[in-house]
Amino acid sequence: MPKYIHQSPDWPQFQWDQDTLAAPLAAVRHRQGRLLGRMEALGFPQQKEALLKTLTLDVLKSSEIEGELLDPGQVRSSIARRLGMDIAGLVPADRRVEGVVEMALEATQNYAQPLTKERLLRWHASLFPGGAAGIKAGTWRDDAKGPMQVVSGAMGRERVHYEAPPAERLDAELDAFLAWVNQAGDMDPILRAAIAHLWFVTIHPFDDGNGRIARAIADWALARSEGSAQRFYSMSAQIRRERKEYYDILEETQKGTLDVTAWMRWFLDCLDRAIAGTETALAGVLRRDRFWKTYCDVSLNDRQRAILNRLLDGDFAGKLTSSKWAKLAKCSQDTAHRDILALVEHGILRKDSAGGRSTSYSLERP
Predict the structure, then answer these.
(1) 279 C-beta neighbours (distance < 10 Å), count
(2) Considering the domain 295-363 in this protein, what is its CATH number?
(3) What is the pLDDT of residue 344?
(4) Which position among 159, 188, 297, 327 has the lowest Cβ density within 10 Å, counted as fewest Cβ atoms?
């Protein structure tokens, strides 16, 4: 019996139990549709903010799965610049961050474009600018140092989790994969994303970066399933939370049969949890949108809007008092007091229980 699925005489004829997957697929499709509808109802600035938050999280967590920690500020700034967003606090990003961001955005922003060998090689070159860490960037592995293996454990006590197909098979393997992944047959696009992720990881065509590129391929396929470049959930962030389970199910599947129902069920459930987790990740964006829709008819000045946004963002240390208002808004104490009282009258702020010199105010929940 073959040790790995790519050694099977029937490779790559994947099989799965459609009945087992029908309910979780319907559930994730329903949740996906609800999320997209909710995001489309957001104002344009909130949509852009949600997109920036999600993409930043996705880039950070996909790298973190592989043990690489990127600077969040650099990632956010790089994405914002590439999307043409005017945000405060932009910082320069190093070549490594720029490369990872370039690959992630190219995959989803150009979801309508087919996957090709040239495109995959560009992604790999982006991940390892200038051949970082001695990696041959933008080239397929050649197995010059022996078989491509996924190994853990100390020297002399290594455990081989997986051994990829030999390098001489790569051309044929990639041709078959790309021919399949680009077709638009009867298969549900989300199921296609699950198989694409697994198939690419199985081929393992690069010396390094295979996991990140496999997740980018899944994101590309999911964007195609929605017909949108707007990414409002992060599969990579959820995989990071379930990293052990992710590696376990991949190893079990690689060493199993070509019936990949268990992998596809895990993928669907993980995607469902990723979409469900969006409300937590984007809580601030959703809260601000709900708040401004509730009070859209209230006439407010620029000082009031600026400080309310800081409160909504959680970007405010301690209690809100008239003296803090005056300092932040660069206005007199009397003006600050009038601004606050007007918001209390509109039911936007409430006076906290403590009075006297310690009088403070909090946001009402719309």
Answers:
(1) 12
(2) 1.10.10.10
(3) 93
(4) 297
Closest CA to 45 of 339, 366, 289: 289
- The alpha carbon of residue 340 and the mean position of all alpha carbons in its chain are separated, in whole angstroms, by 39
Dihedral sign for Cα 62, 63, 67, 72, please: negative
- Structure-model confidence comparison of residues 110 and 353, the more confident one: 110
**C-alpha closest to that of 121 among 165, 182, 176, 174:** 174
Report residue 289 as tokens: 């949108």
In this prediction, residue 179 has a pLDDT band, given cuts at 50, 70 and 90, of very high
Q: Please report, to the nearest 10 degrees, the dihedral formed by the alpha carbons of residues 204, 210, 108, 92 taken in order.
A: -160
pLDDT of amino acid 357: 64
Q: Which helix (H) or strand (E) holds 149?
A: strand 149-152
User: 358 vs 321, 348, 351, CA distance in Å?
Assistant: 8, 20, 11
Q: Given pLDDT bands bounded at 50, 70 and 90, which one contains residue 121?
A: very high
Class of domain 5-283: mainly alpha
Whether the domain at 5-283 and the domain at 295-363 fall into the same CATH topology: no
d(CA 93, CA 75): 7
pLDDT digits (tens, 9 = 90+) for 313-344: 776 777 899 999 999 899 999 999 999 999 99
Helix residue spans in 204-321 (DSSP H): 210-226, 235-241, 243-254, 261-276, 278-281, 283-294, 302-313
**Cβ atoms 273, 238 nearer than 8 A:** yes
Mean pLDDT value across the chain: 90
325: part of which helix (H) or strand (E)? helix 322-329
The residue ranges of every structural domain in the chain are: 5-283, 295-363
Q: Does 154 or 223 have the greater pLDDT score?
A: 223
How does strand 159-163 pair with strand 149-152? antiparallel
Half-sphere exposure of 214 (CA within 13 A, CB side): 22
Phi first, then psi, for residue 152 (nearest 5°) are -135, 165
pTM of the model: 0.83
Count CB-CB contacts under 10 A for residue 102.
Answer: 18
Instruction: Select from 263, 284, 151 the least CA-distant residue to 200.
Output: 263
Q: What is the pLDDT of residue 356?
A: 58
